[in-house]
Automatic annotation (TrEMBL):
Pfam families (UniProt xref): HTH_26
PANTHER family assigned to the protein according to its UniProt record, in alphabetical order: DNA-BINDING PROTEIN, DNA-BINDING PROTEIN-RELATED
Protein name in the entry: Transcriptional regulator
MF GO annotations: DNA binding
Residues in HTH cro/C1-type domain copies: 13-62
Alphabetical list of Gene3D superfamilies matching this protein: lambda repressor-like DNA-binding domains
InterPro entries documented for this protein: Cro/C1-type_HTH, Lambda_DNA-bd_dom_sf
Organism: Arsenicibacter rosenii
């Protein structure tokens, strides 16, 4: 998939554990893991905004487009 989720990178930069972010966002750690591993099919803008607020970052810090070479 050409969209890469760098949530684990931002968590490491902020020295925050997934469990802590899940509590802040009021989601289950399992649901956060689905997003973190790139298995999610989409993300709501309000969820993305909440993640950015909690991690003090921009959406581009979390989501990255990587062009697939054929």
């Amino acid at each position: 998939m050409p969209i890469v989720v760098n949530l684990d990178v931002m968590l490491a930069k902020r020295k925050m554990q997934s469990k802590e972010l899940a509590e802040i966002l009021d989601v289950t750690p399992a649901n956060l893991s689905i997003l973190k591993t790139g298995k999610a099919k989409g993300i709501r803008f309000d969820s993305l905004a909440a993640i950015c607020k909690a991690l003090n970052c921009q959406p581009g810090d979390i989501l990255e487009f990587v062009d697939e070479v054929d």
